[in-house]
Amino acid sequence: MASPAHDPGPALDQDGVRLTVDDAIATVTLTNPAKRNAQSPALWRALAEAGRLLPGSVRVVVLRAEGKSFSAGLDRQAFTPEGFDGEPSFIDLARGGDAELDAAIAEYQDAFTWWRRSDLVSVAAVQGHAIGAGFQLALACDLRVVADDVQFAMRETGLGLVPDLTGTHPLVSLIGYARALEICATGRFVTAEEAVNTGLANVAVPADQLDGTVHDLVSAILAAPRDAVVETKALLQGAQSRDYESQRAAERAAQGRRLRDLAGLGE
User: Fold this and answer.
1) Which of 4, 37, 103, 122 lies in disulfide reach of 71, CB 3.0 to 4.6 Å?
2) Do strands 121-126 and 25-30 pair parallel, antiparallel, or not at all (unpaired)?
3) Residue 209 CB burial class (10 angstroms; 0-12, 13-18, ≥19)
C-alpha cells in the first residue's frame, strides 16, 4: 500500500494569519473569527511575512477569512493609551517625530502591497463585513469574489483619520473619484449588488458558493500559460499611467517577447 502524501502543514500560522501552499496556489487565511478578524500591527507583520515566504511555484494567491466577517477593520485597542502588548500605541506614535511616524505607517503598508506583484494574481474571497482596514485589504488584491452578504465600508474619515493602508489608489481606479469620495466621506455600507455594478467586485454569489466560485476562477487563471498572464497583468497595470501611444508601444514590446519565447528565441 502506498504511503499517504506528506502534508507539510502551514508555511506560517501566527498572529491571526495562516499561509498554506499547494504548488501553484497559496492561500492566506485570517484566523481570528472570534474578533471578526480585527487587524493589528502584529497581523500586518504576519501578512507581510506571508508575502516574503511565497515560493517561486506560486502563481495565484487566495485571501480568505474564517467566520462570518472578512475583517471588521482595525482593532479598537489600537486607540487606547496602552495599545497592544509589546507595541507602541498609536498615541505614542503620534507623539514621535515625523520620520518615525512615516516609517511606522510604511511598515504597516507592507502587508498590503505585495498582493499586486506582477508575477502573481491575487483573489480575495470576501464575506460579511469588510470595514476600514478590512476593505483596504480586499482592495489590495487584483480580484474580488464576494458573498451576497458582503458589506464594505471605509470608516476612517468618520474617526478623524484617512484610509492609509494603500486602499485609496485601487478604490479610485475601480469606481472613480466622485463615488470613492462619497463612500469614504460618508462611511456608508456598499452591498454586494453595488460592488458588482460599480466594478468593485468581479462577481457576487451566495455565501455557500463562495469557495467553489473562487476555486473555478483560480482554475481558469491557471489554465493560461504563466508568462502570458504575467505579461498581461503588467501591461494592464501600466495602462493608466501611459498615454494611448505609449500603451500601443508597450503592447508591441510585450507581444514581441511572447512571440520570441513561443518560437524558442527568447533570451
Assistant:
1) 37
2) unpaired
3) middle
Distance CA 140, CA 30 (A): 15
Is residue 202 within 8 Å of residue 145, measured between CB atoms?
yes
Q: What confidence tens digit (pLDDT) does each residue in 140-187 have?
A: 999 999 999 999 999 999 999 999 999 999 999 999 999 999 999 999
Return the bridge partners of 129, or none.
Answer: 151
**What pLDDT does residue 88 have?**
81
Q: What is the mean pLDDT of residues 85-99?
A: 86
* pLDDT recorded at residue 1: 44
Q: 135 vs 21, 99, 164, CA distance in Å?
A: 24, 27, 12
Q: Are 73 and 131 in contact (CB under 8 A)?
A: yes
Residue 9: what residue type? G
Distance (Å, whole) CA 167 – CA 177: 13
Q: How buried is 145 (Cβ within 10 angstroms: 0-12 exposed, 13-18 middle, 19+ buried)? A: buried
What is the C-alpha to C-alpha distance for residues 87 and 46, in angstroms, rounded to an integer? 14
In the three-class reduction of DSSP (H, G, I as helix; E, B as strand; rest coil), residue 206 is classed as coil
Residue type at position 199: G
Q: Which of 78, 259, 227 is nearest to 164 (CA)?
A: 78
Dihedral sign from CA coordinates of 135, 137, 139, 142 = negative
Residues in CB range of 68: below 8 A, 6 or more apart: 33, 36, 127, 128
Does residue 54 contact residue 117 with C-beta atoms inside 8 Å?
Answer: no
